[in-house]
Design brief:
Elements (H helix, E strand, L loop, with lengths): L10 H25 L5 H20 L6 H30 L2 E9 L2 E2 L5 E6 L8 E4 L5 E2 L8 E9 L5 E15 L9 E14 L10 E6 L5 E5 L3 E6 L6 E8 L3 E4 L11
Parallel strand pairs: 1-12, 3-9
Antiparallel strand pairs: 1-6, 2-5, 3-4, 6-9, 7-8, 7-10, 7-11, 10-13, 11-12
Helix pairs in contact: 1-2, 2-3
Length: 268
Amino acid sequence: MANERPTRPTLQQRWLGFIRTGETALVVGPVIGALSCGGDMTIAIILLAAAAVVASISIAAEPTWSTSLKAILAAATVFVMICIGALIYLHYRDQELGLLFECGPIAGPVKYPADGRLNTVDLYKTGEGMSVVEGDPGSDYKSGKSMSYEAIRCVVTNYSNNPIIRSAITLRLVYRKPVIANVPRPPPGEITLDRPRTISFPKIDPGPTNPFILYIFNRTSDWVQVSLPEQVSIERLGEMTWKDAPLTLIGPKALDLRPDISSSPNQQ
């Protein structure tokens, strides 16, 4: 008995092995593809559904298993694929969340917050970024030489689960001359400048209780239309690269600011 040569697999056994290997590849391959698709849930759902169908057909074709066992295994396979899809969604959902901007016009005066630091963007025709001005908490911020002015107030909220270390947006600024003098809101005239302006934000912690508040002021003698983008560039905690994320906006996409009275001579 010890000297008997092992029997070679029959042709039927070989073909069965190839079929089982192919079935395994057709199940494992789509699962790997779903895990590697970068969070595209449409592709992930198609691949996981294909894997579930192939696995279910393979289970149903097994001649030695009872019908009840086949049903249990098929249901378990579908459940596993659903769980994998849910894990993919939860993993990438946070990465798809960007920043929520709630922007709208307000009439001055603006008051300094409790920490005495006011985040401002002054819409000169040159320059980038924003400034932080300091004053007594609760006191009025004076824009230029006037206490009567308009501003855009933006409340920026991070609704993801992780702090955003840095972020930046690019505004579109369109400057127009006023064409009528001595009226409360002269209509804008010809365009004098159309340019982008990049604003970078510091760390924004997650949650609605940690908003970043920004005020935008017009420092010119022109009307300025401020348009917000659809994307924001962000760097999250634990990541070393910038990524584009959607900018969710509550309020109009474009807002107009009247000329700075203190710097604007009467124009006929």
